[in-house]
């Protein structure tokens, strides 16, 4: 990336990815972690904003509130470490990743790799890091992502409006990340029956742990 004659590059994208993630991990204490190992001929790519949040659970239910908060039910975090390795954190109540007893998942389906690489294009600021993927493949992902990406990564959403006893109108907003979902479907992820049967409550934010609803309040 160049800006007014300066060039900026990340020396270690994986290190930056983990650093970014660690800043918000206090709210992700309950997430399960597994390692994805890419066994296909296509490589994982990494962007300048590599720790990607997603939420298939809420996406499938067309939930109108934010999907990507660190406390949110169904949250997933994808962090590429190298062309062949990726860490994933996920809500174990909402998903089954591969074999329950195994911490490592071998990916042999290139369609899975395409979707995980697309996440990087959707989430990046300006730079994509890659080694051997061909230009045509990268251009395809870039054009597809361009149709979905938003310049502004956050939005304000009105959640409550009322008139008080003095006749003054009050409007409450929350700031939330744009839910740039694309109906991702990875072959190694399944949804447990309790999650399939779950009925969402009326809150804008669906929490994994209801005790977090009062987090930070005194």
- The domain tally reads 1
Q: Strand sequence of the main sheet, in spatial order?
A: 5-6-7-3-9
User: What is the CA–CA distance across the termini?
Assistant: 44 Å
Number of strands: 13
Question: What's the helix count?
Answer: 5
Order of helices and strands: EEHEEEHEEEEHEHEEEH
Any idea what the shape is?
globular
Oligomer: single chain
Low-confidence region ranges: 1-10, 173-177
Radius of gyration: 19 Å
List keywords for this structure.
single chain, 218 residues, alpha+beta, two-stranded antiparallel sheet, 5 helices, disordered N terminus
Structure description:
The N and C termini lie far apart (44 Å). The protein has 218 residues and is an alpha+beta fold. Helices cover 21% and strands 26% of the residues. The radius of gyration is 19 Å and the shape is globular. Helix 3 packs across helix 4.
In short:
This protein has 218 residues and is of the alpha+beta class. Helices cover 21% and strands 26% of the residues.
Question: How is the topology of this model organized?
Answer:
Elements: E1 2-3, E2 6-7, H1 13-22, E3 32-38, E4 46-47, E5 52-54, H2 56-60, E6 76-80, E7 85-90, E8 96-97, E9 104-107, H3 110-123, E10 128-129, H4 135-146, E11 154-163, E12 169-177, E13 189-190, H5 193-197
Parallel strand pairs: 3-9
Antiparallel strand pairs: 1-2, 3-7, 4-10, 5-6, 6-7, 8-13, 11-12
Helix pairs in contact: 3-4
């Amino acid at each position: 990336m160049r800006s007014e004659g300066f060039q900026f590059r990340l020396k270690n994208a994986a290190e930056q990815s983990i650093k970014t993630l660690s800043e918000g991990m206090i709210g992700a204490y309950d997430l399960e972690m597994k390692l994805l190992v890419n066994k296909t001929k296509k490589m994982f790519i990494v962007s300048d904003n590599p720790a990607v949040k997603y939420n298939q659970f809420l996406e499938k239910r067309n939930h109108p509130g934010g999907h990507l908060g660190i406390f949110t039910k169904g949250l997933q975090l994808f962090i590429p470490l190298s062309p062949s390795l990726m860490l994933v954190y996920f809500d174990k109540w909402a998903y089954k990743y591969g074999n329950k007893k195994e911490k490592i998942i071998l990916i042999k389906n290139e369609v899975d790799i395409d979707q995980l690489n697309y996440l990087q294009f959707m989430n990046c600021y300006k730079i994509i890091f890659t080694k051997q993927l061909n230009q045509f493949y990268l251009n395809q992902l870039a054009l597809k992502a361009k149709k979905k990406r938003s310049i502004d990564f956050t939005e304000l959403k009105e959640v409550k409006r009322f008139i008080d006893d003095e006749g003054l109108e009050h409007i409450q907003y929350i700031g939330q990340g744009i839910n740039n979902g694309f109906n991702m479907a990875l072959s190694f992820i399944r949804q447990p029956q309790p999650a399939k049967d779950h009925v969402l409550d009326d809150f804008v934010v669906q929490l994994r742990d209801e005790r977090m609803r009062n987090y930070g309040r005194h």
